[in-house]
Design a protein that fits this description.
- By secondary structure, this protein is of the alpha/beta class.
- The protein is built from eleven helices and eleven strands.
- The strands form two sheets. Strands 2-1-3-10-4-11 form a six-stranded mixed β-sheet, sandwiched between helices. Strands 7-6-8-5-9 form a five-stranded mixed β-sheet, with helices on both faces.
């Protein structure tokens, strides 16, 4: 049978469609400036990371990133701002282990949890260190342990606040080394470090980057990480002394609830490009950070694991802060 005129016409129309390859959908891109809300005042490690990455990330997204410092309520003010923002990728929070893991575990009344947000990307970890005051007379970890175990009254340790990673890490040191230490909280890592250099507290637990500039006026006894940190390669880990205290603190981007997965993936891809450059990797290291680089799926699982890990520490140390 010969083909009909209609059949030939339909065939002619269908052939190009069948032959045409499927067009890949272009990745999402912002159409206006992206706000990055930081839950701390200017000058801290989180604010510093936001400003380090914002320009390069804006270049890749084609829109500027505007860093907004919104301190208050240990992350409450900043988090509620994002929870009330449109779910379109134009408002992010640079969340931390302090604000979205340790604090929620210590305060069940806190009006948010990390799982309330859409995970975008895990950017970096802050590496913590155990640092002794100069007048304590302990040049290394072993000397500190010997002095602490025989001290009457108990030695003191400073943190950068109640129910923070610094506080919880100090409790981890106490438990691992079987020490009796008295907690003295300060209003930030800087004040906690200054208290140690002024011999006002026996040891303190602060980020390596905070302690490094004060090495001439204090003794960095150990880093609280699985491996030695490149910024201070001569400082041992507590694990090397048989006490595996891992107290690194994550920093990453979260988006408003309901943000579409393609938006989160596109934002992560842009961050990954920034992290992959050699000069930025070096910048992170010299500022006391180690890279994470987790995408949305892996970041979500990581946050769950971190909530379980730090929740156990908080419960065992009886750290509470209910509003």
């Amino acid at each position: 049978m010969l083909p009909t005129r209609r059949g030939l016409l339909l065939g002619a129309l269908a052939t190009p469609m069948l032959a045409m390859p499927a067009l890949a959908q272009a990745p999402w891109r912002p159409n206006r400036p992206v706000r990055v809300v930081v839950p701390f005042p200017p000058g801290g490690a989180t604010d510093m990371l936001a400003r380090l990455i914002s320009q390069r990330l804006g270049d890749r997204l084609g829109q500027p990133l505007v860093v907004e410092d919104r301190p208050g309520g240990v992350g409450v003010v900043a988090s509620q701002n994002i929870l009330a923002s449109p779910a379109d990728g134009h408002a992010l929070i640079l969340a931390t282990c302090d604000t979205h893991t340790v604090m929620p575990a210590a305060n069940p009344k806190l009006p948010f949890r990390a799982e309330d947000f859409v995970p975008v990307t895990g950017i970096a970890n802050v590496v913590m260190a155990l640092i002794a005051r100069p007048g304590l007379g302990t040049a290394n970890l072993q000397q500190f342990l010997e002095k602490a175990r025989g001290a009457q009254p108990a030695l003191t340790y400073g943190s950068y606040g109640v129910a923070t990673v610094s506080h919880a890490a100090g409790e981890m040191v106490k438990q691992a080394a079987r020490l009796d230490l008295t907690h003295i909280p300060y209003g930030g890592a800087g004040p906690a470090m200054l208290a140690a250099t002024a011999d006002q507290v026996d040891v303190t637990v602060v980020p390596v980057a905070v302690g490094q500039p004060q090495r001439g006026r204090s003794n960095m006894l150990a880093v609280l990480s699985a491996e030695r940190f490149p910024l201070v390669p001569e400082v041992p880990t507590m694990a090397e002394a048989g006490m595996p205290v891992i107290a690194d603190a994550w920093i990453g981007l979260l988006a408003a609830p309901g943000t579409p997965r393609p938006v989160a993936e596109a934002l992560h891809a842009a961050v990954a490009e920034v992290l992959s450059t050699a000069d930025f990797a070096e910048t992170l290291k010299t500022n006391g950070f180690s890279q994470l680089g987790y995408g949305p799926a892996r970041y979500a699982e990581y946050l769950k694991a971190e909530a379980a890990r730090w929740g156990k520490v908080v419960r065992e140390a009886h750290i509470t802060l209910e509003g």
